[in-house]
Amino acid sequence: MVNLKYKRVLLKLSGEALMGDDLFGVNSETINKIVKEIQIVTKWGIELAIVIGGGNIFRGVALGAAGMDRATADYMGMLATVMNALALQDAMKHAGIVSRVQSAINIEQIVEPYIRGKAIRYLEEKKVVIFAAGTGNPFFTTDTAAALRAMEMNAEIMIKATKVNGIFSDDPEKNVHAKLYKKITFDEAINKNLKVIDSSAFTLCRDQKLPIAVFNIFKKDALQNILLGKEEGTLVSLN
After folding, report:
1. Residue 72 belongs to domain spanning
2. Which residue from 19, 34, 35, 44 has the fewest beta carbons nearer than 10 Å?
3. Is residue 2 part of a domain?
């Protein structure tokens, strides 16, 4: 029997994480690696919700969106997250993981609309719930959507998957001397203007006392370590 620290979690997965080394789109090898990590923890009986971004698809049309109305561009981004959610659901299906996609914008011929009670029931049934289309409103990032859904689902922690090992004092890909924070408070993260998560999501989680873990989705066993309560990545909390 696995001794889990967290029973219900929300995983924020960026669209960029699905690209692999490609310029945009979904890299099948990369998405299968991510699904293998998810497959392990779902066998433990974890109740897992996922909010997915759309940067990998929207990046491919971003040049055409230059000068576009911000709200229109944001709606295009929401549709990109739906495409990613379907790709993730399909990869999970091939790995034997039962999942459901719920969208904050109504596309009922393709995915279910977001209904909180139904989503909670799916989690209780150990189905993975993938939330698409952000909050359904322009001007809000998928980080903020993840914080919102985590609270609505009564998650015990929000986990942000990145390509680096946690929150650093500077961009570790540009500054080799950047310091990795093992633990940091919400106020410190906001005051230092750390960009790994937007300030609205930080503030929402701080006000609701919801901790955030930031980790490298491609580091072996990293997701498992967080769920087991082991030191991994960066933990953002009240103190």
Report:
1. 8-237
2. 44
3. no
Quick check: is 3 in a domain?
Answer: no
Q: Average pLDDT for residues 151-168, to the nearest whole number?
A: 95
Task: Give tens-digit pLDDT for 117-140.
Answer: 999 999 999 999 999 999 999 999
Contact 140, 131 (CB under 8 A): no
Does residue 58 surpass a pLDDT of 80? no
- Whether 1 is covered by a domain: the verdict is no
Let me know if residue 207 belongs to a domain.
yes
pLDDT at 211 over 80: yes
Share of the chain above pLDDT 70, in %: 96
- Check: CB of residue 223 under 8 Å from CB of residue 208: no
Q: Read out DSSP for the chain?
A: ----S-SEEEEEE-GGGGSTTSSSS--HHHHHHHHHHHHHHHHTT-EEEEEE--HHHHGGGTTTTTT--HHHHHHHHHHHHHHHHHHHHHHHHHTT--EEEEESS--TTTSEEP-HHHHHHHHHTT-EEEEESTTSSTT--HHHHHHHHHHHTT-SEEEEEESSSSEESS-TTT-TTPPEESEEEHHHHHHTT-TTS-HHHHHHHHHTT--EEEEETTSTTHHHHHHTT---SEEEE--
Per-residue CA distances from 67 to 56, 60, 74 (Å): 20, 15, 13
CATH number at 168 reads: 3.40.1160.10
Contact predicate 34/12, CB 8 Å: no
